[in-house]
Fold these 2 entries.
Entry 1:
Amino acid sequence: MQGTEGSPEVDSSPSLYTLRSFIKDYRWHIFICLLSSIINVGIDISLAVLVQQGINQAISGDHFDTWKIGFIALMIVVGFIVKYLVKAFTVSVSTRITRHIQTHIFDHLGNVKISFFAQHSTGDTVSRLTSNISSIQNFLQNDLYNLLYLPLLCVAATIYMLSINWLLFVSCIAIILVSVLLIGIISRPVSKYASELQAHIGRSNSISQDAYMGLHVIKAFGLKPVFSGKYRSAMEDALSSSIALEKRKTWMNPFIVLLKLGPFIVCILLGGYMVIHETIDLGRLTAFLQLLNYLVNPASVLPMVITNLRHVIGVSKHLFELLRQPTERADGNAFGKGSDHLIEFQQVSFTYDGSKQAVDNLSFKVRENTTTALVGASGSGKSTLFQLICGFYEPDQGCCKFYGRDIREWNLKALREQIAIVSQDIFLFPVTIAENLCYGRSSATSEEMIEAAKAANAHEFIMRLPEGYDTVVGERGASLSGGQRQRLAIARAILKDAPVLLLDEATAALDMESEALVQEALKELMKDKTVLIIAHRLSTVRDADQILVLDQGTLLESGTYEELLKREGPFTHLFHAQYSA
Ligand SMILES: Nc1ncnc2c1ncn2[C@@H]1O[C@H](COP(=O)(O)OP(=O)(O)OP(=O)(O)O)[C@@H](O)[C@H]1O
């Protein structure tokens, strides 16, 4: 599928690297966590030294300084306080980091090429932004500190234990390494299962979203079993990935027990033997046991942290895929009037998916302040012309010009400021009517907004609503009739007051009274504008300055209503077909 060219750099880095680039912005916070970890490690090691001295002095009958007892108590209290502060701090940092990721992705999605949204389900995208993000937040909140603190503690404990007795250390570390290795092997598929689980959750979310949005169709066509089946199948897939994930975690349990108990048993047996043969004293053995605790604890927590890290790598991959979607270009200029023809297509060809031509070698010109009607059978390429004019897609061949300049030279934001669209499928946001109208021009005053609503024949029905302009319109404007929704869309376009108006005529579905009101509103909207209108009923194109008759993306003929009827060509056939029907 062809989208607009020239997006900024596409990030192809691995997911963990992308996550790291977000964390990097909080390096001072991370530095504080690291500093606190060093303080904690210092406290832990000095406690071991003091215990060793205390026991040896007690055995030899020496007096143990009381200040040392006070110091041990102080160390324990300081350790608690630092741990508490670090926990509070990591919670705050992890929340900031995840909010940062969320807003960054949300902003990025706003710039992503429109073709992405034609291919991907909204439910899946929303699910990535919610459940994947919360997995990352959990990891940062619970495991980030461990990733900093535990390796430091291990290194410090290792050095001290080696200085006490290397043989005892090697015996214990062998058991630790074997257990950790086995746990690592077993946990390897965890990131794959986590990624699959997220994909299934995304699928089930998108099915439920589709089902709620199309609830009327589902009820009317009795489609409940179809959607229930689809949802159940997605949930079953999610369940089996989740079971596989948990199974893996359970398989790790025996090795975690081995890790937690094995080194102590070896240490007590071998250490006891050494004490009897006086190759180590009891104080050093006790200190060794305490240090072993510093090694075993991290070693038993670290596999879980690593498993969680793998889980996060899996979900990050899924999430950061969104950041790798190419964005629309942000370069280009805003141009003033540079030609008599506001819009010009020169031998334009375009295909969405590389197979069927949606537009084929099409050329036409639109003068300023004229109305051009596009007619043709369904699928003849009328809406595609709108997409090309708005710069949502670029032609494969030929050139689309706006004010005499190739649209590829235009800045897309500036281009779209020149255009107001009223489409057939009106989208209203589930906010108040006032807010919906002001999306046309956020700087509009209340008076201007009401004036636009009056011009669009919408003011009266709005005032009849319980809260007038402050009425919330419901999901996609569901609480309003089709005609009311259209008049609001027209009011929004009037408020935008753009020189070019792209109109998808949709009055055919309305009753006569509603249609008359909408037609009147349209007349007001079209005043002094360059209008391209997709006309579904030929009676509405009588006054157009030119009519373009399209078929399968090609221009069959063009002219005024009278000229085309006189010519007795494709337009006349369409005309007869419609009126005989
Ligand atoms: N997002 C898309 N991806 C792939 N093909 C598309 C897409 N949108 C439209 N098409 C195809 O492009 C061709 C032209 O479609 P287009 O919507 O422009 O026709 P139309 O004349 O506006 O039809 P209608 O009057 O029914 O709205 C059709 O064959 C259609 O299937």
Entry 2:
Amino acid sequence: MMSAQHRAAETVLAANGVTMIFGGLTALNNVSLELGEGRILGLIGPNGAGKTTLFNCLTGLYTPTKGSVRLRGAQLPSDPAKVTSAGIARTFQNIRLFPNMTVLENVLVGRHIQMKQGPIASVLHGPWFRRDERAAREKSRDFLNFVGLRDIENEVARNLPYGDQRRLEIARALATEPTVLLLDEPTAGMNPQETEAARQLIFRIRETGISTVVIEHDTKFIFSLCDSVSVLVQGEVLVEGSPETVRDDPRVIEAYLGKPREEVEADVEGARTTIIPRYDDDQTTVMEQYREDQP
Ligand SMILES: Nc1ncnc2c1ncn2[C@@H]1O[C@H](COP(=O)(O)OP(=O)(O)OP(=O)(O)O)[C@@H](O)[C@H]1O
């Protein structure tokens, strides 16, 4: 029997020919991508490639100059709050928690978005709202349990270690009960243990059926995490496919190293055959050879 990962997945999120122009700068040019149900899609690319801009288009923060974004076939509203209610949640490159609120209160904020009623409503309204509020707390605790922060629900968010703050951001996003979760550099600044814990957490999120898009600079992390990977370079999708296909593609190596693979290999080979042996053989020969090479 085929595992869930290998069966064709229904597309939940699709960007079609998305172009984003700021003044004279084309940040995204005709970008298309598809995210399958319960899949993890990685988005990599050099600085300034347009990854965050694409996230902003996928969350209604930006309206693309051209092209469309569809969630389960329906055009995305161009209002971030409506996009969240429609089922897309995100975390940010720079953590955006409410630093002076407790861990539990931060998750409750996500829960209220899901409930489509603000916290003030529970004060102004009758007992059924207070009952909803109790249910919201219980549900928020479930999400804290899921990410492993249940024991510190009363800590103030700003006092949490960095890795825990990132986890809390994820818990808050999960509390909106999204169809799609967008994670912008979830392991930035993490130590290897925290990074591994984040990888395991994202796998567990996939097991719940949520579809995830992850932006990361750490390509090793992306290749070991994702079901498919898209490489953005200068606002365009350069390569997309399975982690293996993308990792071995010479264009990807070139985009990261700035040179064609053959040239990189020739450089390495050249260094081995000419420079290194001379150092090994005789300390003076490099300079002598240099002098001999001069016309
Ligand atoms: N609001 C904006 N107004 C003008 N230009 C913008 C805006 N947002 C992004 N850009 C430009 O669009 C291009 C893509 O930027 P973006 O932040 O999306 O890249 P990135 O791949 O996320 O980079 P990084 O890895 O450094 O975060 C850059 O040239 C950037 O300066």
